[in-house]
């Protein structure tokens, strides 16, 4: 193991375990709440699904990276194919559900009198389970062909377990399945645009609502809800930009012989599921209160 690979492994490990911890925390709090009240709302359904997909993605990503650096000889059929397919599934689910959460906040909180928007606001709780099911089916439709193509390429390339060859293998896979890769990229752009439009609609709704409330000096609950949702959506938008920048850089440097830049890009891309989960935790009063109480208990025990 080279020094650069060792440093990258430490960075990815710290990043992955921090992300797995915060997402496991989100899932556990929601599940405990479900056991207490026997039901949960649409927001909790989205957060639960998002936490599970991010935990799975970070776990699989770290495990594959660890084996790739420490025990590359273990990457034999069918491990590379399964790893690529599972990571693709969780990554795609993460992307779609993150954008869906921003759209959910916009529909729930924004105030518009258009008939279609009113219809969505009334039916959004029934639509959410179907949106989650749709994200699963879409992610499966992308990950299954990835498994098949990766199996074909690894069988034809016995040196694919080498770190440099592994990244080149990904590029070859994308060339072989260009139509599917194009559709996947188009879906990612649609998800990104959904976050942008949600932010713009919510911002305009907040502006109109504040103008109506200017004459009223009393603090309005709707304004607070708008501002909290805006913080969450804008943070999602910023992290989406970071994520897409990392994906573009990974394609640019994929055929580069040096591994350092590729490893840094990998850490750069994995920022999204870690930091965004923290933002969602502190945007949710229940999760924030539970997290602060947990950290206080840990601090007291340590001291």
TrEMBL record:
Localization per Swiss-Prot or TrEMBL: Membrane
Membrane-spanning segments: 6-35, 55-79, 85-107, 127-147, 177-204, 237-255, 261-283
A Pfam match: TAS2R
InterPro entries: TAS2R (IPR007960)
Domain of life, source organism: Eukaryota
Membrane topology: Multi-pass membrane protein
A GO cellular component annotation in the UniProt record: membrane
Keywords, ordered alphabetically: G-protein coupled receptor, Membrane, Receptor, Sensory transduction, Taste, Transducer, Transmembrane, Transmembrane helix
Any GO molecular function: bitter taste receptor activity
Entry similarity comment: Belongs to the G-protein coupled receptor T2R family.
Protein name (database record): Taste receptor type 2
